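2024-03-11 09:14:02 DEBUG pipeline.ingest accepted 1 chain
2024-03-11 09:14:02 DEBUG pipeline.ingest length=385
2024-03-11 09:14:03 DEBUG pipeline.predict start
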Amino acid sequence: MKIAHLSDAHLGRQQYHLREREEDYFQALVEALRAAKEVDAVVITGDLLDTRRPSTRVLLRALDVLTEADVAIYAIGGNHDYSYLRPEETPLRILDRVGAIRLLCFEEADLGGAWIYGACAMPRSRSDEFRQRVLSARPGSLLAMHQAVEGVKARYPSAVDEHTMPLKALSGIKAVHIAAGHIHDHGASTSVPGASGSVQALWAGSLELWDSGEFETWDLSGGRWEKMQEAAPKGIYIIDLAGKAVSVKEVLLRPRRRMVKLRIFLENAKEVEAALDEAARRFDEAGSVIKVELYGEVGEDIRPSRYAAFFSKALYVDVVDKTKKPKGVIIKSGSAYEAIEKLLREKLGAGADVIAKALAYVRDGDKAAAKRILEEWLYAQVDRA
C-alpha cells in the first residue's frame, strides 16, 4: 500500500498581494498530485486551504485540482482551515461532501490493506484530549496530524508555537509512522516513543516557499557577493506500508519562480545606489521575487521605497532598511515596524513574540496571516482562562 504524504498547500494565499503567487500555490499542488499518480491514496496533513473563509473562486479552483487528480485523497484540518472551537465551520467539509476529499478529523479509514487515523489541529493546551484521541488509533496504522512536536528542529522554534504538542502527548502510540503537517520545513523529523519502539514523525513541509526566510539568500559585503543559502527544498513523501514495515521515499518538487533575498551590508549611505545597481545586474529576472535588506551603521537617512525601481524585470521587489544610526545621530526616517517590535519585546511578556511575528507578516504584505496568528493566540488565552 503506497500513500503520498503532502501538506500545507495553503490554496488561496496571495503572497505579497500577487495573483501570480496565488497561482503558484495552486500549481504546486497540481505538481505534487501529479508526482503521486502511482500511489493508492494521498493524505494531506492540514492547511490545504489558507483560510477558513476562502472565496468561492478559490474553493471552486481547489475542487477542480483535487478532482482532476483521479486518486483517493484523505485530508485533515490544519490551524488555517480548521478550528477546534468551531469544527463544523471548516470549508474542508464542503470538499468532503462533494467527494473531492475524505475529511478525517479524529477518525480512521480503511484504505484497503492499511489504516489511517486523522488528527485535526489542536492547541497544546488540549494535549491531554489530543493524547486520548490518538491513542485510540489501531495498531499498525498511519497517524496523520497537523502539529509540531516538542524538540523537533525547525526554522520557526516549536517552543513558542501554540500547535506544538509535548512529546508525552504522543508517547505510547500504536501507529507505525506519523505523517505530519504544520511545520513548513520539508524533511523535519523526530522520533516518538511508541508502544512497540520508536516511531518516526516526518513533516512533508509546505509545497511553496512561505516567506523570505526560505528564499535563496545572498550577502554583499566588502564588494563581494556570497551565497549563504539555497532556496528551501519542497516536496512530498511516498510512504509504503507493508504490514509492520514502513519505507519512505522522497520526491522533490521543482521551484516555479526564483525567489531571492539580498542582504547588503553598507558602510555609508553613498554605497546604496552602486550596490543596488550591481544587484539588479546579477539578480533581476523576469517573474522573480526579490527582497532586499540593507544593513550597516550609516549616518544618513535611507529611503528604501525609491530603490525598487532598480529592478525592472522582477515581478515583485521589496527593499527594507535595517540599518542602524551611530550614537548621537537623530533618526529622521526609518522602520516604524522595527521600532514597534523593539518596544513590544521590552514591555510585553509572552505575547511579544506573537505580535512581533504578526508585524513581520504585515511588513511582507500578508495582513491575513497576521490576523490569523493574533486570533489563534487570543483563542488560546481564552481557552487557558
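2024-03-11 09:14:41 DEBUG pipeline.report The mean pLDDT is 87.
2024-03-11 09:14:41 DEBUG pipeline.predict end
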